[in-house]
Amino acid sequence: MADKVFIALQNNADAQPIIEAIVDDNPGAVRSDTPGMVKIDCAGRLVIRRESIEERMGRDFDLQELHVNLISLGGNIDEDDDEFVLSWGV
Amino acid sequence: MSIDLKTASVEPLRRTFDHIEAKLGPDKTPTRYQEAVWGLQPACNFHYRPTWEPERELYDASRSALSMDDYDDLVDPRQYFYGTWTLQRGRQQESQEKNFDFVEKRGLLSTLEPAWRERVERLVIPLRHVAWAGNTNNSYITAYSLGAPLSSACSMQMMDHLGIAQYISRIGLLLRDNEMTVLDDAKALWMDDPMWQPMRALMEESMVTRDWGELFVLQNLLIDGTVHPLVFNRFDAELVQHGGAVFSMLTEFMNDWFAESTRWVDAVVKRLAAESDANKAQLESWITGWLPRVQGALQPLGDYAFAGRAAEVIDSVIDELQGRAQKAGLNF
Question: What are phi and psi of B190, to 5 degrees?
């Protein structure tokens, strides 16, 4: 279990396209719903892609906007304009 | 005394309305946009046929040669419904107002070389009449098309055109210190100047086009898709070379709007074409039918604005348009 990363987001209308994008982009992702929060676990590497979110949201999206609905995350972050990647690698 | 905190998880019995669930499938959470536009189109129990067109129902699919199994599929990738659209336009209006203030306070338009100032007056200001026709045309599509996703997006497109017409008028007023004569002169050009007559004839014909699908292609794909790049992109770039960078500040909205509305128009055309071969053939025949006319109307404008380079500039605009149509799955 040591290589498992996760991200937890608020379960609201704004976060829906983000959650959907993450689940669709990461075949190994497991979504668990709790009241008010959606937690997504994934073994190894979890990638959040700006383009996938924009497609679902219908507008331009800055990956920094992620933080508005972000509750918590586990993993080291590798981030650029297009992708936000969680993993335990260096 | 100790207090135990417990969370009780309550599963909602239903996530959305039945008609949304029927379209989206069970266990899916719809977006606000989907809830706002799907299933709004009245489809039955019309009782009376309209007295002004007794051969058709009030909402009748036969008003266009295009047909869709479900008109609710013509969704807008921008996901605009009234709330999101007004928020977005409100923001843009605010920054556009600031730009106008900025230019007006400093009298920046006076730095424009006189020859180029005249070009703006002759080429850009009469476009308010084109934009107004775009407003009327989209109002027609709103009235007669089927399915709220398309008709509501067209009503926003209608208001956007009106907004553009107003911005163009304000640029004219800025050019002449709020002298109304600038608008009268632009109207005179629109009515009588040979350069504008092919465009005026085209716009007038578009306004009596009865098939809303044909009008959508003509107005939103062909006319907007050529006039806007020609004037607010190519001519704008030319102007910047001659001390007109300030003009770009005043047309920022037109450029932003064009980039955004293009996504919507392309998505609708693509979905219409994907529905059936008959739709695809119909769209292609409309485009091949109207494109030479549109090109003919652009020619004198291009000749005036770009002199010797007109052919090259117009070709590049048409190429862009053809690229868009091809991406939407059309060949012509």
Answer: -60, -40
